[in-house]
Description:
The chain is an alpha+beta fold. It has one domain. Helix content is 41%, strand content 15%. The protein has helices spanning 4-14, 60-79, 114-120, 123-141, 204-207, 215-221, 223-228, 233-246, 253-265, 277-307; strands at residues 27-32, 37-41, 49-57, 88-93, 99-106, 153-155, 164-166, 183-185, 193-195, 198-199. The strands form three sheets. A five-stranded antiparallel sheet has the order 1-2-3-5-4. Strands 6-9-10 form a three-stranded antiparallel sheet, with helices on one face. The chain is globular and about 55 Å long. The two termini are 36 Å apart. The mean pLDDT is 92.
Amino acid sequence: xxxxxxxxxxxxxxxxxxxxxxxxxxxxxxxxxxxxxxxxxxxxxxxxxxxxxxxxxxxxxxxxxxxxxxxxxxxxxxxxxxxxxxxxxxxxxxxxxxxxxxxxxxxxxxxxxxxxxxxxxxxxxxxxxxxxxxxxxxxxxxxxxxxxxxxxxxxxxxxxxxxxxxxxxxxxxxxxxxxxxxxxxxxxxxxxxxxxxxxxxxxxxxxxxxxxxxxxxxxxxxxxxxxxxxxxxxxxxxxxxxxxxxxxxxxxxxxxxxxxxxxxxxxxxxxxxxxxxxxxxxxxxxxxxxxxxxxxxxxxxxxxxxxxxxxxxxxxxxxxxx
Length: 322
């Protein structure tokens, strides 16, 4: 990893976030998150890796706290039976101030990742994938204390389909999943952990990617929900099912709701109320609207930064599919 740091530093120093493909080595964007960009670089040392770029850190203290929390988060997931790929974090100081953290993981075959699988598998096989994700997610969230006391740790999980991969799928043309699924969870960039009921992740880090004129509204109306929803198993399950609309499998939602309700019925100890199709649809519509509006606002904020001669370090997509 040591030899990769100078390469990333040189790339970051010449990066124009509006035109990341113009920097050397050439970048290929693999995906966009709400606070990060996933890319790969055409260099022998880096081309096997997916790099998640997170440029929101202002000082070394913030970086150190995030690195420590990220390490504890991966440990906690593994202790709860979740497979997480080998992950490296590299820190680069930006030329105009601040720090970028790069999360490096070896690239997974595209066809092994959950969102690709649900687009190509038949319903009965996708059902098995969803049920496996539910089992893994429950291992994490059901282990959280109901009422935090001294020393208790709770772990949050963004369990959407696109954050999982099946590691033992033998080929990209396989229309049937293996009898036993080897699931891995690879999106560790938002290490949500509560200790004694107190969130350990600094929410200000993620508010920095938001347009400055929206920050007070987000903090007042949305921040608490965003920071707590991934500890709530029912809300996480709703998010998983809503992903089917995003992956062009909305026609599956009514039947998959029945599958999930049957699964919940078989786990009465979870005490989770049954789901219904309308709440999944409503959740998806609201989420899609919010993120379309949010992207438009970020582009406006980028333009304001440019007019004022200020640094805007985020790489934004032209549009997002929802």
